[in-house]
């Protein structure tokens, strides 16, 4: 196997935001490579960063050669990195296009993972035999359309420099054709309530429950209408009282005072944007105290945190929440009517 000397060459200042994979996770990846025991691999790193994965692969004699690409990298990097956008690169004569190669690792994700999928699709089109991708869990179905699974493991809160991200590590063998998608049936409420997810729409008179989007996919803060006023729950505790509805530019918004657990004033707030869900008329079909208590327990549970934070930054999709409410309300009505017959 050809040996490489890493020089720590100074190439160019890093002008893009970058989140390099931690050395601890690189060690995990190396162990997976060893278990796969794939012979004589030419490795193509599409977003090399500082090339630390290639460094570890070479030092462990796990690849026979490599080609690394990135649009920008840090002052100190390892080995040779070609500065270009691999995803826009299309010169089929370049020696990086090797049919028996393994391609991938940690691509940029982009909004709704569109950039990561672009990288994956390009790798499949180039007919490389193997792939390895470190991507959000929601990308898994997309990968399975193009690759047979050789390895799949999931991780919660992996550190990329100062950013934590939940990911899967997928190693696959290329399929000759892309499998067709099975479209998921659209989720709809099975009971007489409505749910919407819009920003800057204001609060209609029939809205009774609001879940506001924050920096993490969580169920809090949650706002619940009680008569003329609204109550705010955060981390399963009532922290705000007497939030009022105000009118602004012909629309109604909530404004009130946030209070901590000791009842002290924290800040004034207005619910105008970044709303996960507005739910209307649900108070007419279910006991709201029971519903709020149930949502509190869900939001505080370890299982819910692990589930939602696998899909950062916005895991609580409207479809998932409708499905959850459908199941929850079925249980509620079953208990309610079964008691009436006893």
Question: How many beta-strand runs?
Answer: 15
**Widest β-sheet, arrangement of strands:** 8-15-9-10-11-12-13-14
Going by CATH, the homologous superfamily of the largest domain would be Vaccinia Virus protein VP39
Broad shape: elongated
Query: Which sequence of SSEs, written as H and E, runs from N to C?
Result: HEHEEEHEHEEEEEEEEEEHHH
Structural class: alpha+beta
Write down the CATH topology of the largest domain: Rossmann fold
CATH architecture of the largest domain: 3-Layer(aba) Sandwich
β-sheet strand percentage: 25-35%
- Main sheet attributes: strand count, strand direction, barrel closure: 8 strands, antiparallel
Explained architecture:
- It is a single chain.
- The protein has helices at 23-36, 52-59, 114-125, 140-146, 288-300, 302-308, 318-340; strands spanning 42-45, 65-70, 82-83, 102-105, 130-135, 147-160, 163-174, 194-196, 207-212, 222-226, 229-234, 237-248, 251-259, 265-271, 275-280.
- Helix 1 crosses helix 2.
- The chain is 25% helix and 30% strand.
- It folds into 2 domains: 23-174, Vaccinia Virus protein VP39 (Rossmann fold, 3-Layer(aba) Sandwich), CATH 3.40.50; 194-340, no CATH class.
- The chain is of the alpha+beta class and 342 residues long.
- The strands form 2 sheets. It has an 8-stranded antiparallel β-sheet, with no helix packed on it. A 7-stranded mixed β-sheet has the order 3-2-1-4-5-7-6, sandwiched between helices.
- It contains 7 helices and 15 strands.
